[in-house]
Amino acid sequence: MGNQRFLSLAVPGIATTDGAGVSLTRMVGTPQLEMVDPFLMLDRMDNDDPDTYMAGFPDHPHRGFETVTVMLEGQMRHRDSVGNDGLLAPGDIQWMTAGRGIIHSEMPEMIGGKLKGFQLWINLPAAQKMIPPTYQDIPSAEIPIVDGGGASVRVLVGDYQGATGPARAQTPIRIMDVRLDASAAWTIEPDDGHNVFACVRAYPLNAHTHNM
């Protein structure tokens, strides 16, 4: 088998709510998978019922970490305590570095009644815990895509097969949104000393599988 390495643990997500009652599936940050250093939490939004998400995430504080919001379907309006205001459309990314502290809100705006996407929390290194809060709003058109072998890989941050993601992280990480055909195989080689995890969502055979 050479130097191949395989995932050592499979953990199902748990159904939960956050914000003002938004229904989520928590993938990281659960009793079964507390964290995958430096990743603190990963929530998957996958709702077709507006009653389960339209109340959104009203004003709430963050400090000492980064949040990465990846929209797949629907829209999300964000506002914060330092005057930022933006709208995430399908395929867009918002990368917020909370640093020394910020209060913000994230409120869904409906497109066809669907809300699908992810939010990942990334711990900041000790030296960056008190940096000023910043945002990176990245439109889908700026995200490079690597296609081949039944896989379509959007590179959000870090490098993959010659493509470099547009996001700037405070820690040396890679994040990819991978869509696989039903019969496709896909592999990735993590750097030595780095953790790796995949959030897997299976779809019908005529759709795709989302990994992150």
Ordered list of secondary-structure elements with their pairings:
Elements: E1 14-18, E2 22-28, E3 39-47, E4 57-62, E5 65-73, E6 75-80, E7 85-88, E8 93-97, E9 102-109, E10 115-123, E11 134-138, E12 145-148, E13 151-157, E14 159-160, E15 163-164, E16 175-180, E17 200-201, E18 209-211
Antiparallel strand pairs: 1-2, 2-3, 3-10, 4-9, 5-8, 5-10, 6-7, 6-9, 8-11, 12-13, 13-16, 14-15, 16-18, 17-18
Characterization of the model:
- By secondary structure, this protein is mostly beta strands.
- It has one domain (14-211): Jelly Rolls.
- It is 0% helix and 47% strand.
- The chain contains no helices and 18 strands.
- It has strands at 14-18, 22-28, 39-47, 57-62, 65-73, 75-80, 85-88, 93-97, 102-109, 115-123, 134-138, 145-148, 151-157, 159-160, 163-164, 175-180, 200-201, 209-211.
- A seven-stranded antiparallel sheet has the order 1-2-3-10-5-8-11, with no helix packed on it. Strands 12-13-16-18-17 form a five-stranded antiparallel sheet, with no helix packed on it.
- A hairpin with a 3-residue loop joins strand 1 (14-18) and strand 2 (22-28).
